[in-house]
């Protein structure tokens, strides 16, 4: 259940945040706008950023059984995902402040609604970035430089919806970077399984973010924002299905390249089953339906990570 946009505008809540989320209920009032900026009231984003990291760690453990899974790296990647997703959202909101003010679902966000100043917003983004840097420095030098390289994608993404019909592809490049980072943090270099996992994650992101963009398709058309949801039009369900099928195939190929065996093949069907359910029940003209399907992708990441853990452990 989502908040009413008009009421949210009055009391500072964000219209597209879950009803009675923990930030609205328990966070100190002075901190609420900043927590909302970092999307702490909408945890799905940092989970979707974290799962490629977790899957990559599991893949590395399967490939090199002496690598522990899970280990402390899992916690560091989770903290980093929360911090960097927050920093990315603040950057995105700064760039999109005029667009967000013209869309009912986003006009109650802290920047377009005037809850935070420009100076405070930039300072908060820098602070989140420093947390991410602290986490990154826990890893080997190769992983540190790999993480630094991802900043170019993070910085460029908010502008893509203005210049290309494929901003979801660029989001996939950025949001899937953890598929490379997890492997690199354990093995100190990159190999074929990590690249296959990365490509699969990109296809996954294009699919689920197309579903997310269906919520704003009509308003995006009015203000000139581009997206795959608009590009695919009435073929959106088919295109999401194709990208999900590609993601599933690449994930299986990555696991096999990492020497996964029968246990993975037996248990890994849960992830594509959830994706198939999304496509089969998707109603592109119903924002609430689209949001539920989008959020269910966290279970996809958990399912695939669990399959890799089972393969590793047993």
Mean pLDDT: 90
How many H/I helical runs? 18
Q: Which residues sit in consecutive blocks of at least 5 with pLDDT less than 50?
A: 1-10
Shape: globular
Largest sheet: none
CATH topology: Tetracycline Repressor, domain 2
State Rg.
Answer: 19 Å
Name of the CATH superfamily: UbiA prenyltransferase
Number of domains: 1
Instruction: Estimate what percentage of residues fall within beta strands.
Output: under 5%
Count of extended strands: 0
> What is the string of helix and strand elements?
HHHHHHHHHHHHHHHHHH
CATH architecture: Orthogonal Bundle
- End-to-end gap: 40 Å
User: What is the assembly state of the chains in this entry?
Assistant: single chain
The CATH C-level name is Mainly Alpha
Helix-strand category: mainly alpha
Helical fraction: over 70%
Topology:
Layout: H1 5-11, H2 22-26, H3 32-37, H4 44-63, H5 72-95, H6 97-100, H7 118-136, H8 141-163, H9 167-175, H10 178-187, H11 192-213, H12 217-223, H13 228-232, H14 236-257, H15 262-267, H16 270-281, H17 287-295, H18 297-313
Helix pairs in contact: 4-5, 4-10, 4-11, 4-18, 5-7, 5-8, 8-9, 8-10, 9-11, 10-11, 11-14, 11-17, 14-16, 16-18
């Amino acid at each position: 259940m989502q908040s009413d946009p008009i009421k949210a505008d009055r009391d500072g809540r964000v219209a597209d945040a879950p009803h009675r989320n923990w930030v609205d209920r328990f966070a100190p009032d002075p901190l609420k706008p900043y927590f909302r900026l970092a999307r702490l009231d909408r945890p799905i984003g940092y989970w979707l950023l974290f799962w490629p990291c977790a899957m990559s760690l599991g893949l590395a453990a399967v490939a090199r059984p002496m690598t522990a899974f899970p280990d402390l790296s899992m916690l560091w990647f989770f903290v980093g995902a929360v911090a960097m997703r927050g920093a990315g959202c603040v950057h995105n909101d700064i760039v999109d402040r005029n667009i967000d003010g013209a869309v009912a679902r986003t006009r109650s966000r802290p920047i377009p609604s005037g809850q935070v100043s420009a100076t405070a917003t930039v300072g908060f983004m820098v602070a989140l970035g420093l947390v991410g840097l602290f986490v990154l420095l826990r890893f080997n030098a190769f992983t540190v430089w790999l993480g630094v390289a991802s900043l170019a994608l993070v910085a460029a993404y908010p502008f893509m919806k203005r210049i290309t019909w494929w901003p979801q592809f660029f989001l996939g490049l950025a949001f899937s970077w953890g598929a490379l980072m997890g492997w690199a943090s354990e093995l100190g270099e990159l190999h074929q399984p990590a690249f296959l996992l990365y490509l699969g994650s990109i296809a996954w992101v294009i699919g689920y973010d197309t579903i997310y963009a269906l919520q704003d398709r009509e308003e995006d058309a009015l203000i000139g924002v581009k997206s795959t949801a608009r590009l695919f039009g009435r073929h959106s369900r088919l295109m999401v299905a194709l990208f999900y099928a590609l993601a599933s195939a690449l994930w299986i190929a990555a696991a096999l390249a990492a020497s996964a065996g029968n246990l993975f093949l037996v248990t890994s069907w849960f992830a594509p089953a959830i994706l198939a359910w999304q496509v089969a029940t998707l109603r592109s003209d119903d924002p609430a339906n689209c949001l539920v399907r989008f959020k269910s992708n966290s279970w996809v990441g958990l399912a695939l990570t669990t399959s890799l853990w089972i393969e590793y452990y047993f």
